[in-house]
Amino acid sequence: MEKTVAIAKCEQYDKDMLKTVVQQQFDSLQISKDFFAGKRVVVKPNLLARREPEKAVTTHPAVALAVIELLISYGAQVTVAESPAGVYTEHALREAYKASGFMEEAEKAGAVFNYDISSRDVSAPEGIACKGFHMITPVCEADIVVDLCKLKTHSLTKMTCGVKNLFGVVPGTEKVEMHARFSNSTVFAQMLLDLCETIYRQKPVITVCDAILAMEGEGPGTGTPRRLNALLSSKSPYALDLACCELIGFGNTIEMLELAKKRGLCPESAKGLTVIGTPIEELAVRDFVEPKSQKMSRLIRMIPPFMKPRPVINQKVCVGCGQCARSCPEKTITLENKKAFINRKNCIRCFCCQELCPYKAVEIKRSIIFEKLVK
Ligand code: SF4
Ligand code: SF4
Questions:
Q1: Fewer CB near the last or first residue (10 Å), C or N of the chain?
Q2: Domains identified in the chain and CATH numbers
Q3: How many angstroms separate the alpha carbon of residue 351 from the centre of ligand 1?
C-alpha cells in the first residue's frame, strides 16, 4: 500500500514557485524526470463549472500551469482532458477550457487540449459496486494520469479531492445516470473506489491537490473559499485524500475513505501516512465547515418523508438555463417559460441540482422541526 504524501505550505498562487514546489515533491516521492519522458500524460484538472479562480470551484490556473510546464520540461506529451458537468461536446469542452484560465499559456508551453468526445468501455471485474465503466478516450490511451484535483466540500460525498476528481473521466451526462444508478451514498462511494482502482490498476496515477484556496460549506459549486495554504502530491489518491481529510478535521466521517480503509487501500488513520515536508498539524484547521446536506443525510434516514429537506427553485433567481434539468438523474425537473420546476414526487434528494446551478437558484427547504434537529 502506497502511503507517502508530500505536503508543502504555499501561501500564493505563484506559478514559478509552485513549479519548484511540485518538482521538489515529485523528487521526494521518487517520481523522476525519466518516469514522464516520452510518455502520454493526461492531466485531469477539476473544471466543474465556469467560475473565476478566486471562487475556488476549479483547480487554480497557476497550479495547473506549474504542473503542465514541469511535465513538458520532463519530456512528457501532455494532454489536458476533462469531462465537466453537463453535456460532453466539443463546444462544451472548448468553453470549459477557455474558462480554465490556463488554456492559452498551456498551449504555448506545448500541451494539447482534448476535443475527442468518444469514450470506451473498460471492464472492472474486481469492482464491488460496478463491473465496468465508460471512460473518455484520452484517459484510456494515456500512459500516466495526473489527477489535478481541488480540495472542496461536497454535498453528497462530504469531501471531493483525488478520488472523486476521477469521476470526471466518465463522459458528460453519463455521470448523471450513474448518480441515479448508485443513488445510495454507500454504493456511490464504492463505485468511486471501483472507478479509481480500475484506472490505478492499469496505469500510474499521480495526484496533485490544490488546497491553497480550498472550499468549505456548500461545495463543490457554491461553497465558501477557505485558505488552507497547502499543496499536496502523492502516488496514491487514497493516501492524499486521507491527508486532506485530516487537514480539514473531518476525521473518520468520509464514507468513501472508510470503505477504502476496509479495502486496504489506505492506512486506518492519517497517523499511518508517511508525510514528507510540512506536517499536517501545522496546516490543519478544526473549524472547516461541512455541507449542510451532510448533517441532513444523517437525520434523513431517521425522519418521516414529510419532514425531509428537499430542493426548491427560487423562481426569482432562476434564469432558465436548464443546467439543473440536464443534471437531474430522475429527470424530474422541467422548464416552463424559462423557469425550472421540480416534480417533488420523483425527487430522490441527491441535490445534484443544487450542486450544479450556476445562479444559486436551488435552495434546500427544511421544515422548522428539521432545522431544530440539525442545530
Ligand atoms: S434552477 Fe439554476 S440551473 Fe436550473 S434552470 Fe434555474 S438557473 Fe438554471
Ligand atoms: S430534483 Fe434535484 S435533488 Fe431531486 S432528483 Fe433531481 S437533481 Fe436530485
A1: C
A2: 4-283 (3.40.50.11440), 292-374 (3.30.70.20)
A3: 13
Short-list 214, 193, 207, CA closest to 239? 207
- Identify which of 300, 324, 328, 366 to mutate to test ligand 2's pocket (most ligand atoms within 8 A of the CB): 328
Cell numbers standing for residue 192 = 468511486
Provide the grid cell at 327. Answer: 443534471
User: Could you give the CA distance from residue 51 to residue 38 in angstroms, rounded to a whole number?
Assistant: 33
Among 9, 24, 5, CA closest to 227? 9
Distance between start and end Cα atoms, the chain? 40
CB distance 330 to ligand 2 below 6 Å: yes
Torsion region of 371: left, alpha or beta (phi above 0 gives left; psi -120 to 50 gives alpha): alpha
Burial class (CB in 10 A: 0-12, 13-18, 19+), 16: exposed
Q: How far is CA 18 from CA 147, 209, 233, 283, 337, in A?
A: 16, 12, 12, 17, 48
Ramachandran angles phi, psi of 27, nearest 5°: -60, -45
Would the CB of 362 count as within 6 Å of ligand 1?
yes
Q: Dmax over Cα atoms in the chain, in whole Å?
A: 61
CA 48 to each of CA 30, 63, 160, 180: distance values in angstroms, whole numbers, following the listed order: 31, 16, 11, 19
CB of 195 closer than 6 angstroms to any ligand 2 atom: no
Q: Where are the beta strands (DSSP E) in 63-204?
A: 77-80, 112-113, 119-123, 132-136, 144-154, 158-160
Q: CA gyration radius for the chain?
A: 20
Contact indicator for 206, 31 with CB cutoff of 8 Å = yes
- Please list the pLDDT of the chain residue by residue as tens digits (375 residues): 999 999 999 999 999 999 999 999 999 999 999 999 999 999 999 998 777 888 888 999 999 999 999 999 999 999 999 998 778 999 999 999 999 999 999 999 999 999 999 999 898 889 888 888 999 999 999 999 999 999 999 988 999 999 999 999 999 878 877 876 787 888 899 999 999 999 999 999 999 999 999 999 988 888 899 999 999 999 999 999 999 999 999 999 999 999 999 999 999 999 999 999 999 999 999 999 998 876 555 555 566 666 677 889 999 999 999 999 987 878 899 999 999 999 988 887 777 787 778 888 988 787 666 666 555
